[in-house]
Design a protein that fits this description.
Two copies of one chain form a homodimer. The first copy, chain A, is an alpha/beta fold. In chain A, 31% of the residues lie in helices and 25% in strands.
Chain lengths: 418, 418
């Protein structure tokens, strides 16, 4: 019976655990995560944009794995890994392992300007998503009671920094929400006057997609009222808005979707990492000097045919499964197999009924791409209950132009007196 | 065109606004609330117990009233009322009124021991509900990794202070959740060993109900493993648990459902209030010296046939409507009518499929009462979409013994580094 420890219950960790759960006689698995829930990250922007409730895209890791009696789930923070001692250290105690899978993911990076974070939150956790939701909805509420036109304009200006899929999805959703969902609810402001500005340092949005799709996505965003500023670099973020070199843009809401960096665990362990903190791995996703330690998902740096694999759910999922398979093969005395990413394509939504999709040589945009996006995301959403709910909520939002979760909830729990 | 200002978007304020919204030629309504959402309070305990998501029992006041063009909604804190100047003061500005409706509700009171609040949160807002959910779920998570049996016992002890409907509903839900929902998910603890203790200072639980129903409710709770301690007064609450005179009960989770006190606005205004801060009103719910100022819901003290009306949703709803009707009558030159509460009865649920119900001389308990409870609550739940969702979620929870919203979300928004 080999002891397997998994750090992180994202797509990589969860799928590795599920595969090893089917081999109860061979492995004993401990999965450690700082949250009690697995998060369906590709839909997190929907929570930030009040389209879905947190519980619809998150499920307790414990109950997702409760059928597997050889798996235990621990909610704790991983603090260090001692490679020589084969021990993982968490704030609740130490865990010895025969095999270790590191899948701790990534978080936003502000390129050395950590103080920008409070002005421009990123979108990686449920907490951040509800904070973004609070900021966006509160900006409209404040604009409604603001009599100074200049201040109102700043309240109705939303800046999104970074035009990868997340940035594009946030910008499209804010553009659409202001034009359709909120338009009829306000009296003193015209939500249609909302400015949504998507800023990208590179020469085009969605740099991971084919150029023709970037152009189509930009046109679709513009139809929703989003202004796309490419080749523009943000040099300062503060309470008033953003600076782009000489220019200054007043905006009370700034969202950050510009860069990510892997969990700091790699540096702590003293292994080889790239500038983004991703751990360099072998062809089977193990460490060169410690073959019983694997790394997967956003925490790993893996190149295939000279191209770096992107930080996306399908990559993490396939890596997690490959590692689980290799561990089980090795226990059976078989050879490990190298990891090979099967690229099924990528997509990004733009508002309520448009998307861009790229799969091999197939490139789609508009409504058909959005339908494909919908089917794929519902299919992959973990757990039957969530899937059903999400379909209903979407159908409802689609038919009614409403948003289901327009709650402003206080950031800190606070008691109202008097 | 008369100016009507409504402070508070609960059952009283919302229903008064809806009624006046149908008379666009006569009144111009401003509704002010510190939250952007109307909250269906009777189901708030379901959010605290991870059965429902916040958005399922809360809807933006703005969108509930968007069809009425003579109503504007302002999110702001009401800070004072200047009766002589006929002006309501909020943190975003002042509002002049011809008629004023105060419906600011109530919050928990700790009988002079405000420091108990951080150890024993009450249940009045979405923030408090998600905080209680976090504490309860986290207690189980911590118990799973706790090796000291004494500390584990304390983590698995849940104390609920106060056995009105809310206390009974919380106790029943924790009892059931630990026995059924969580039982299969943990490895190192047996959630069935959870102790749930319901403490009541008076001689019986549910004092507002007939004695026979109190006794039945107590028996039903005991079947779910809840220990009912009546005639027990809590004398101290701290990090370790509670004290009842000489006795000491170690519990890491304590919830407060023991007493409420009206908004402090009454005292600020210098009008007559009772010891709980409720404003004394005339038979038409107006102030004796200021007949154009009305008070409704938990903020008003109203006696009918020598009995004080309880702080419940139906009372607030009927009062709000009565006040709106009287304002419209007066504008039409008609006489006001006194308020009369039509008591349709009261109920409380106990776990997943039991309840007690009292309506006139009809007294029901068990499954039938629970079915009636379900129908009534779904019927009254504001807005079609919420109703549909809640039915599906409940049906799912009922069939699967699962809970849909078992999320532990951080109290403060915090970025995880490394």
């Amino acid at each position: 019976m080999k002891k397997v420890v998994i750090a992180g219950g994202g797509f990589a960790g969860l799928n590795a655990a599920k595969m090893m759960g089917k081999a109860p006689g061979k492995v004993e698995v401990t999965l450690i995560d700082r949250n009690n829930h697995h998060l369906f990250q590709p839909l997190l922007y929907q929570v930030a944009m009040a389209g879905l409730s947190p519980a619809e895209i998150a499920a307790p890791i414990r109950s997702l794995l409760s059928a597997f009696r050889n798996i235990r789930v621990i909610q704790a923070n991983v603090t260090a890994v001692h490679l020589e001692k084969r021990q993982l250290q968490a704030d609740c105690g130490n865990f010895d392992y025969d095999y270790l899978l590191l899948a701790c993911g990534a978080q936003h990076t502000y390129f050395g300007n950590d103080d920008w974070e409070k002005y421009a939150p990123g979108l990686k956790s449920i907490e951040q998503a509800t904070e973004i939701r609070r900021r966006v909805l509160e900006a409209f509420e404040k604009a409604e009671i603001e009599s100074d036109p200049k201040a109102q304009k700043s309240l109705l200006t939303f800046v999104i920094v970074g035009a990868g899929p997340t940035g594009v999805e946030l910008a499209g959703a804010i553009g659409e929400m202001s034009r359709f969902t909120l338009a009829r609810d306000f009296r003193n402001i015209d939500p249609k006057r909302t400015r949504v500005i998507l800023i990208e340092a590179g020469p085009r949005i969605l740099p991971g997609f084919h150029e023709s799709l970037s152009a189509k996505a930009a046109r679709q965003l513009e139809k929703l009222g989003v202004q796309v500023w490419v080749s523009s670099r943000v040099t300062q973020v503060d309470l008033q808005g953003v600076e782009l070199g000489e220019e200054r843009l007043r905006a009370s809401t700034v969202l950050w979707a510009a860069g990510v960096e892997a969990s700091g665990l790699g540096k702590q362990m003293g292994v080889d990492v790239d500038p983004q903190g991703r751990i360099l791995v072998e062809s089977d996703l193990s460490l060169a000097d410690y073959p019983k330690v694997f790394v997967a998902g956003d925490q790993a740096r893996f190149e295939q045919e000279g191209k770096l694999l992107p930080g996306q759910a399908p990559v993490a999922l396939q890596q997690g499964r490959c590692i689980a398979r290799n561990i089980l093969r090795e226990i059976d005395g078989q050879q490990r197999q190298p990891f090979r990413y099967l690229d099924k394509g990528q997509m990004a939504t733009i508002g309520r009924s448009r998307a861009v999709l790229e799969s091999g040589r197939v490139r789609l945009s508009g409504f058909l791409a959005w339908l494909a996006w919908l089917v794929v995301h519902i299919y992959y959403l973990t757990g039957f209950k969530n899937r059903l709910f999400v379909v209903i909520q979407w159908a409802w939002a689609y038919l009614s132009f409403r948003r289901g979760a327009r709650l402003i909830v206080d950031r800190e729990w606070r008691i109202f007196k008097g």
